[in-house]
Amino acid sequence: MKIELKKLRYVYPSGDEALKGINLEIEGTDPVAVIGQNGAGKTTVVKHFNGILRPSSGEVLINDESIEKRSTAQWSKEVGYVFQNPDDQLFLESVRKEFEFGPKQIGMTQKEIDKRVEWTADLVGLSEKLDLHPLDLTLAEKKFCTIGAVIMMDPGVLIFDEPTCGQDVQGNLRLHRIIQTLKERGKLCITISHDMKFVVENFKRIIVMCRGEVILDGRAEDVFAQVETLKKSFVAPPPITKVAQGAGFTKTVFTTEAFMEALEERMV
Fold this sequence. Notes:
There is one protein chain. Helices cover 38% and strands 22% of the residues. The protein is α/β, with parallel strands linked by helices. It has 2 domains: 2-236, P-loop containing nucleotide triphosphate hydrolases (Rossmann fold, 3-Layer(aba) Sandwich), CATH 3.40.50.300; 238-268, no CATH class. The protein has a 6-stranded mixed beta sheet with strand order 6-7-8-3-9-10. Strand 7, helix 6 and strand 8 (188-192) form a beta-alpha-beta unit. Helix 4 packs antiparallel against helix 5 (139-151). The longest helix is centred in the middle third of the chain and has 16 residues, at 169-184.
């Protein structure tokens, strides 16, 4: 799956310019993180990937096809979006019905739906809660319910908007497994997050946005080495990375083990 933005601009009805001529290409299955301060344009840009928002000017291409050629409902079969607030997405009487709804709309057979419900529920940790009302779930479980509902549609691209909000350590570990499983199944996962520890643990490519523009795009090690540029976006590296940079390490480290190795190298 390939997503390409060409000089993408988006202007709100108020006249505020949210995106300022973005050129960007995302392709393959390596998970991608989009980071930046509130108001940087992260959610605005990813909402163009399946037509929730449409460009004021410029182009959005999915596998070289213009986003304008299909409806959002049609694109959602290929690019699934998990909203930051699960209450914006959940509307049925049980987790099972949430999982089944999308596949039924696209004509998936009941046999295939049943098979996918079992697999998806296990992946997102809701196998024992399929018959519960989504309102009876915790916030973390609601997030996994919405993730599961999108996975059920089997899109090539899945977008997660702030999935770690409300998650504990076990929830973050489950998110890690979901992201890795999707990659293994040939899916592209694009995630917006303010949790830098989660970002460096799960994403090799990081896109940094600031005031409607992409100011950094590359490997995590390279992005977090750009300290002064990151300051412009009000993004702080993970704590262990900041300590290493403060100590004058030239190597960007994200773990305690990497920190100790770098320290030993300096002492040799």
